Amino acid sequence: MINKNILTKSVQDFINQNLNIAIDKLLFSKPVFENINNSELADQIVAKNKCIKKLPLWFRTSNIYLPKPLSIEQSSSEKSAKYKASLVRGKSLIDLTGGFGVDDYYFAQKIDKVIHCEINKELSEIVKHNTSILKANNIECKNLDSTQYIKENKNKYDWIFIDPSRRNKTKGKVFLIEDCSPNLPEILDDLLDKSENIMVKFAPMLDISEALRKIPFIYKVEVVAVDNNVKEILLFINKKESNDIFYRAINITKHSNDIFDYYPLKTHIPTYSTPKKYLFEPNSAINKTGAFLAICSKFEIDKLSKNSHLYTSEKLIDFPGRRFEIIETAQYKPKLLKNKFKDNKANIAIKNFPDSVEKIRKKTKIKDGGNDYVFFTKDINDKPMVLICKQIF
Fold first, then answer.
1. Tally of CB atoms within 10 A around 241
2. How many angstroms separate the CA atoms of 84 and 104, rounded?
3. Sheet strand arrangement including 229-237
4. Hey, which residues does 302 pair with through a beta bridge?
5. CA 158 to centroid of chain Cα atoms
6. What would the pLDDT profile of 269-326 be if each residue is shown by its tens digit?
7. Are strands 321-330 and 278-282 parallel, antiparallel or unpaired?
8. 263-301 burial, b if ≥16 CB within 10 A, otherwise e?
9. Residues 6+ apart with CB under 8 A from 88
10. Around Cβ 358, how many Cβ atoms within 10 Å?
């Protein structure tokens, strides 16, 4: 049960005015309020701080009740939740692993009725309260075992959404699909009996090729990054769709969404070259999809080497990633680099290179920072190569 005393004005004021309080000091102080443990106050403060950038709507809305900080960490960000919501339409969606309900809030803006299923009673109660505060009146909260519920009820849904838990009963992280809860391959037939459209969210650590082996009827894979950090992998399942799997890599930024689409089964023949005028580095979403060959044909650019995943061209193009002008190409000779950067700082990046960034800095004495970017990679003949660049925005 949630402690509704936390929602009183004096307590909410205390939380908002003490976001920078020393949590350890609070935990070992005498109780600030009657009927509220200091540990409960601490959880609200820590969770609210986690919402500042990730969930700004929840952060700035009055009388929101926050769960344990771990639930905030495991929830979608507003940016990624809004994106997922843009992919659905219809009258009904059921979320089998509702959690803190961020995804469902945004799904409810595109779907007539959303059912939020959450087996944790307290978390279900929290979401029910918050959806009322946020006036998301088309969300129905159910505190139950969703896998049993989906088997027993006869309702059909336009969409089923599921985010399998990546922790086992002993709270350890798991990495195999069948170790997640619920076990998607085990319940997939029941899900397909209730909906033609299933969206599954997995963590960035997912091995996409393993998912394709173990989960049938996947027709689309989307890798979602926010500000060049991969946040989630979405799998779309439908029996009636084509077996020619479609891939999308999307990087959501403050100003735009960088999108790269491709079909991996299509033959992509790369071209290779020595460094030209410009250098291109794909964003993290593209790197996760493994679209290293498709980039060449899509943008008509050359790869520097088979395994470096850096690209070059004489033309400056729009590109879903970072762009650089190559100022100089050099051999990997630490003494020469040490003299070159004696009075200058530089940002170091390694791509398919034997030495680590730390080892390179130790050898070359290049200090971190500045406007120069130095890429340590390999050339077309698999020999070490250094590219000194300026980033183009």
1. 16
2. 10
3. 139-142, 111-117, 90-95, 159-162, 198-202, 229-237, 218-226, 246-252, 257-262
4. 312
5. 25
6. 999 999 999 999 999 999 999 999 999 999 999 999 999 999 999 999 999 999 999 9
7. antiparallel
8. ebeeebeeeebebeebbbbbbbbbbbbebbbbbbeebeb
9. 107, 110, 111, 158, 159, 197, 199
10. 9
Beta bridge partners of 342: none
Q: Longest C-alpha distance within the chain, in Å?
A: 74
pLDDT tens track for 95-145: 999 999 999 999 999 999 999 999 999 999 999 999 999 999 999 999 999
CA dihedral 306, 379, 223, 99 (to 10 degrees): 120
Q: How far apart are alpha carbons 99 and 71 in whole angstroms?
A: 7
**Cα separation, 190 vs 148, whole angstroms:** 10
The CA distance from 71 to 54, in Å, is: 12
Which residues, in sequence order, are bridge partners of residue 374? 348, 388
User: HSE-up of 261 (CA within 13 Å, CB side)?
Assistant: 4
The candidate with the shortest Cα–Cα distance to 162, out of 255, 70, 73, 84, is: 84
pTM value is: 0.93
Whole-number Å distance between alpha carbons of 223 and 149: 30
CB of 313 closer than 8 Å to CB of 274: no
